[in-house]
Amino acid sequence: MKGIMRASAAIVIISAVLFYAVHLLESSSATTGSGSISVYNWGEYIDPEVISQFEEETGIQVVYETFASNESMMTKIEQGGTSYDVAMPSEYAIEKMKENDLLLPIDHSKLPNLENIDPYFLDLPFDPGNEYSIPYFWGTVGIAYNPTLLEEQTFESWNDLWNPALEQEVILVDSAREVIGLGLNSLGYSLNSTDLGELREATDKLKTLGPNVKAIIGDEIVEMMRREEAAVAVTWSGQAADMMWVNEDIDYVVPEEGSNLWFDNMIIPSTAGNVDGAHQFINFMLDAEVAAKNAEYVGYSSPNAAALELMDPEVTGDERFYPTEEMRDRLEVYENLGLEMLGVYNELFLEFKMDMEK
Amino acid sequence: MAKLSKPAKIYLALVFFVLYAPIFYLIFYSFNSGGTMSGFEDFTWEHYAAVFNDTRLLIIVLNTVIVALLSALISTAIGVLGAIGIIFLRNRKMRNAVLSLNTVLIVSPDVIIGASFLILFTMVGVKLGFASVLVSHIAFSIPIVVIMVLPKLQEMSSSLIDAATDLGASQRDILTRVIIPYIKPGIFAGFFLALTYSLDDFAVTFFVTGNGFATLSVEIYSMARAGITLTINALSALIFVVTLGLVLGYYFFNQRSGANAGTGGTRP
After folding, report:
1. Beta-bridge mates of residue A39
2. What distance in Å separates residue B64's CA from the closest CA in chain A?
3. Phi and psi torsions of B169, nearest 5°
4. How many other CB atoms are there within 10 angstroms of residue A117's CB atom?
5. Which helix or strand (DSSP H or E) is residue A318 part of?
6. Which residues of B touch A246 (CB under 8 A)?
7. CA distance readout (Å), B100 to A26, A57, B90, B95, B204
């Protein structure tokens, strides 16, 4: 009994010492100032130096946390029990959150830097007047490919994926709207189609792509393409940029039939505890120099016109990642199709995947 | 013990090689200046420096350890009392029912336990963070402790208790001087198992972390989304070394107390 008591006391003392160590670490990283805000973002989606710069300039301490999908982020916020002040969801998630009253309106008078944003990215259908969201990054869906592994094959159209020479070479991103969208686009239909006939046709066409598909996976795509384990991948522009960062042979193209244009945005969840601090943070992220630095670190396309002027023209002039407005007109933004339609998309995607297993 | 034959030794070596190879592969690349897990370039300590410069990561490591220690301690206390309670239940049916309920908690998927905790905490209005993680870890550790302690209690002869009563021991004496010393190895085993469960739990913790509080497994999962950086390798190497140290420490502690028990008799 004595031994157990002694061991328990030792554990309690060790825990107390560790608690004290955590406390010391937390206070050493915090600057004295008015409170803190917590930011909820995708992993590896911000330059850590930008955060420390914000802490130094405003004295507000940033508690930074990451999520891996829009869905898990929404669940955490919807369930309550958290008090994130700023989060960065994608556009379709914003529509859903708006419907569920999970967002606070953004006070534009507190965001003088909002004028830096290219007007093209403001007032979009998913949030008219930017009442609830401010653009953070944007990008496209397209085809990343490695010409050194292919024989003279190029990709201008989605239909090029059906080339028999590409047997077991194509990776698809594991996401229903992207893959069904690919099928719809290749037939010239809208990405937001709710016509069951069109969707059926698209799925049947996708099934004929089966022999060419090597895998349907998520973030592992980047590593596989870097290591040249596959030659072609349907993926987001930012992932393609990540691939090129390591493997310079890789190229990226947005097919001529059109594709998806997506936006990640900064929002203030209804559970926020420090709304004023959240506005300060959003305004800070809109600053030209900060946005430029952040965009160079993250590698996605920035909607910040003033920041683009400060960046390397070789990057901002790259039409693969900064398509001209004319090219953007061919692209479509996902609309919120409602739960029922989303179910249909998921069902068809599943059907396509099951068909592959045969 | 019989001496191992040569093929047996080779087989043993092979099994251990397969078990440990991934860990050493990971540690090996933590010294790579190349920045990826393919192609070793130069030897460097920079990833280890990065671990110690990242205060957020250090705080998370410390928090993980605190949660593990406290949850293991508290769940051991509750679990031991629970096991003693179960063993002294007179009604056989009742005892089996309680035991099955305990087992159900062990075999039910972590995801379900995690999700139900999330719903419970938000309904009661508990803010997600240290407290919610600690409570849920205690909860899923208790059944494990019970399972570890029960066999020791079952093998204990009831005549020991009868003898103690005959010699005038009070209920309290029987508990602290007879039962608990007898089941001590089970208690320690339960504690260490609860500790490891808490340290590496992902599924339950994933649901109940929030507001800037995270444990290591949840954090590594979020980081891995963007490809594993070698900082993770360095951190894993450090944790491996510390665990190795703990196991060796436990081994020596056991040897010493074992020797004491052999010479010192039973009475302090």
Report:
1. A64, A86
2. 10
3. -75, 140
4. 21
5. none
6. 36
7. 44, 58, 16, 9, 21
Q: Is the CB of A80 inside 8 Å of chain B's CB atoms?
A: yes
Confidence of residue B250 (pLDDT cuts 50, 70, 90): confident
Residue written as token pair 């969208």? A181
Convert the pLDDT of each residue in A299-326 to its tens digit.
Answer: 788 999 898 888 888 888 888 888 887 7
The full DSSP string for A159-218 is GGGG-GGGTTTEEEES-HHHHHHHHHHHTT--TT---HHHHHHHHHHHHTTGGGEEEEES
ipTM over 0.85: no
With an 8 Å Cβ cutoff, is B50 touching chain A?
Answer: no
Of residues A15, A81, A246, nearest to B70 (C-beta): A15
Q: Does this model's pTM top 0.80? A: no
**Three-state DSSP class for B44?**
coil
**A 133-152: CB under 8 A from B:** none
B212 in the Ramachandran plot: left (φ > 0), alpha (ψ -120 to 50) or beta?
A: left
Q: Measuring CA to CA, which residue among A203, A193, A239 is closest to residue A220?
A: A239
Give yes or no for B55 touching A (CB within 8 A): yes
Phi, psi of B5 (to 5 degrees): -75, 170
